[in-house]
Amino acid sequence: MPDFQNPTGALMTPRTRRAVAESAARHRVTVVAGETMRDLDLRDPDLRQGAGCGAAPPRIRRALLIGSAARTVWGGLRIGWIRGPAGLIGELCRDPLCPPLAASPMQQLVAAELLGDPMPVLLRAGRSCGGSVRPPGRAWGGGVPWPGLRGRSAVALHRS
Known about the structure:
By secondary structure, the chain is of the alpha+beta class. It has 6 helices and 5 strands, in the order H-E-E-H-E-H-H-H-E-E-H. It has a domain at 1-104: Aspartate Aminotransferase, domain 2. The chain has helices at 14-27, 69-72, 86-94, 105-114, 118-133, 154-159; strands spanning 31-34, 63-68, 80-83, 140-141, 144-145. The strands form 2 sheets. A 3-stranded mixed beta sheet has the order 1-2-3. Strands 4-5 form a two-stranded antiparallel sheet. Strand 4 (140-141) and strand 5 (144-145) form a beta hairpin. The protein starts with 13 loop residues before the first helix and ends with a helix.
């Protein structure tokens, strides 16, 4: 998960992104990257440039990017998607071991409505609320704040 790894909220550095892209190209590996948390990025737009495997230079040619409305819009809305090159998506669709999966038509209609114009409104609301609950000078990771604990590991913490 290159962006907002759950539960830490860690982001893959540009250097690591390049290394993954180069290694994937060299070994002809398809990268499968979870983007389910990416749309929850509340940083300034300038800081978001290049986020995600599909957008980060160098572009990964064989990447499947997995998204979900459950994280971005509504936890009960079990709608997901896969983005990738048309040929690679076609391979998935033709694979007899990959049965077609689809949410109910009602869920699809709800997702289509919520993923349309209301998204900027939802993100603005999240940004305005986030500033009021974020403690000054503390880094947050994932969906919750992470307290700083003494010790280098869970084992060290347990022993102390």
